[in-house]
Amino acid sequence: MATIAYPQSYYAASANPVPQRPALQEEVQTDVCVIGAGYTGLSSALFLLENGFSVTVVEAAKVGFGASGRNGGQIVNSYSRDIDVIERTVGPRQAQLLGEMAFEGGRIIRDRVAKYNIQCDLKDGGVFAALTSKQMGHLESQKRLWERFGHKQLELMDAKRIREVVACDNYIGGMLDMSGGHIHPLNLALGEAAAVESLGGKIYEQSPAVRIERGANPVVHTPNGRVRAKFIIVAGNAYLGGLVPELAAKSMPCGTQVITTEPLSDELARTLLPQDYCVEDCNYLLDYYRLTSDKRLIFGGGVVYGARDPANIEAIIRPKMLKAFPQLKDVKIDFAWTGNFLLTLSRLPQVGRIGDNIYYSQGCSGHGVTYTHLAGKVLAEALRGQAERFDAFAELPHYPFPGGQMFRVPFSAIGAWYYSLRDRLGV
């Protein structure tokens, strides 16, 4: 089997040193087999190990190979659909539980970084930037909503104030969330993997799960080995393929594109983002950007439905960057890559159990950095018999994409076009 390496991203080029991890070549016995060494799998493994379970992780490529090691690196609170939408869908009790959890993922990340001394360039402060008065009104109501659930580290910004933190003329205001922030996402995953191993967990790379033998004592088969477990956690997200057919119909892999500039002078970097906060705008298909520790600008945006890799990522994203920062017109792009995230029709995560012993979480819909860390805790609680928070997610309604798998891409693209048009028209 050919070895799968990291994509040529800025994160892979600047990653902390990592040990060579073996492929699974034998049969092993464990309490929990976790499929996927991204944030969901690693977070689950850490919480389980801290609570006395034995854990084996099988990964098709390398730790953090998927979205966990390719994303924009932004710690953004809540879910891709906010708590008010959840309240209208499921009622007050379930919404209260989900609302209380909406800000927990960022706290878990900070706890992990501190407890296990993870070197991942953690910085505080995230900005939501409004391009229209409608978007500004949404941020005002979002602030009231979040404060209802105890989230107080928020500041509304008018046009003058946002110019102090983002040197871009396009925004009429915004909201600063000081419990948001940014990280080197691959280094966070690598640090969490080292923490898993420090607690006795096993991680096998280049070991895709090719079949799950279901039953009272489930077995995960890889090309050259197998894992006998009491429980399985499926954490493959957009890279799961057809391993669990029940999970494929209600989700769709989507690609997002990211570019990274050459290192900027301290002076130029300071003029772009003087406080070193990360930024995302409020459009349906949003742009997001931040500075790295070595003063590059990482800029991402756009969605490719169905997760095809576009031929020229820089041609798609560079114009967006120059619209925000025309002063970067002569700056060279050193890295350009794409990565997949998993979209659900509701844009809310799918959490559940198949049979008695196969648990899963997937479909972060672009809000994965914080949610996946929370998901690991919620899945671990469920395996310990504390299912209230797990059930709050598991009871969210989910539907297959209209037209099934054949038509989900064009239908979703039409929907995105409609919302993008509304963004442009400000309606």
TrEMBL record:
**InterPro entries, A to Z:** FAD-dep_OxRdtase, FAD/NAD-bd_sf
For this protein, the Enzyme Commission number is 1.4.3.-
Which segments constitute the FAD dependent oxidoreductase domain? Answer: 31-381
Q: Which GO terms describe its molecular function?
A: oxidoreductase activity
Top EC class for this record: oxidoreductase
Write the record's keywords in alphabetical order, separated by commas. Oxidoreductase
Signal peptide residue numbers = none
Highest taxon in the source lineage: Bacteria
**GO CC aspect terms:** cytoplasm
- UniProt-recorded name of the protein: Gamma-glutamylputrescine oxidoreductase
Species assigned in the record:
Pseudomonas putida (Arthrobacter siderocapsulatus)
Q: Which gene encodes it?
A: puuB_9
